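Incident review: delayed structure delivery

Summary: a single-chain prediction request sat in the queue longer than the usual turnaround. Root cause was a stuck worker, restarted by the on-call engineer. No data loss occurred. The affected request and its eventual output are reproduced below so the record is complete for anyone auditing the incident later.

Affected input:
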Amino acid sequence: MFLVLGAQLPYWPLWLEARGLSGSEVGVLLAAAAWIKVAANPLAGYLTDVSGRSRLVICTLMAIGALGFLGFGLAQGFWMLLALQILTAGCFQALLPLGESQALAAVRRHGLDYGRSRLWGSVTFVAGVLAIGGSLDLLPVAILPWLLAAGLGLALIAALALPVTAEDRERPARGDLKRLLSDPPLLWFLLAAALVQASHAAYYAFSAIAWRAAGHGTFTIGWLWTEGVLAEILFFALSSRVLARVSFRNLILLAAAGGLLRWGVTAMTTALPALAAVQLLHAATFAATHLAAVHVIAARAPGGLAATGQSLYASVSGGVLMGAMMLAVGPLYDRLGLQSFYVMAGLCGLALLLILAAPRASSTPEQESPP
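Output delivered after worker restart:
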């Protein structure tokens, strides 16, 4: 799944632009992909929990998503592209929190280090970024949907080997969903984390377009994305040491502060040394936020709602707020260009204020409840 994500995330806006879409139309399609997660992710997560058939749900979503990507190769017109965007995003994005739920179940079952397991997803993401970045310097961008479909086909083969475990047979008790959705500390924490994650909207949507317009080739753009993910990989590799010393609250504080710096510099310059320097802050803006959020959800979600809890976080962070920002960032970029990244810095500033205003629950990372 992360191989497909690395092939899609940096370069999909280039494919949409090559189809003749304006910045606003690109923003609408990317916003639709984010908004569909608001419904698709919790629905897929809850269906997985109540049915106890995680492998079947995952394989079905992969098969439908692969067919949807094949459809892009034949689609004509904005509305058909929009329909396919909703279909593929609804399937593919729902897979990511289901994968997190599978990984965290294995962590609990076998005593694994989550960060050192999760970093392999980032490694394959890098492989996708570099492979497609190099390919698109030689091949037309029109080939991208076919490659994404092939990648999901490989993921489907791997998913067929997923084990059926005791967690799959655990059902949520009556009232568990209500308790999950009415947990104020958890929801407060998720809002701050979602703001930091949503601050990546301009980066995901327009960094490749802006940097290519500044004269950087797609391979260079791929390496800039790769550098950020390498910083993420290093952070995940050291995550057990980080969590032994830093609370979840302070991780989000560091992530928000890193976002203020990262997006502020990105708004000011396209100089390669400056971009290379701030790309290292992806370890803060993405990895630290993600690490804190998945652990908090795993700790606070009632038994039998592990997939639902992870899907709820993905829905809030990648759906509600990311969808709103993707919808806004198209017109912002059309009008402001690079300066639209200042708005992303503002989201991180708001997250910083929210966490600073929240009461500290305890003084040690192991005992701390969010936020």
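Verification: Residues 318 and 350 are 17 Å apart (CA to CA).
Action items: add queue-age alerting; document worker restart procedure.
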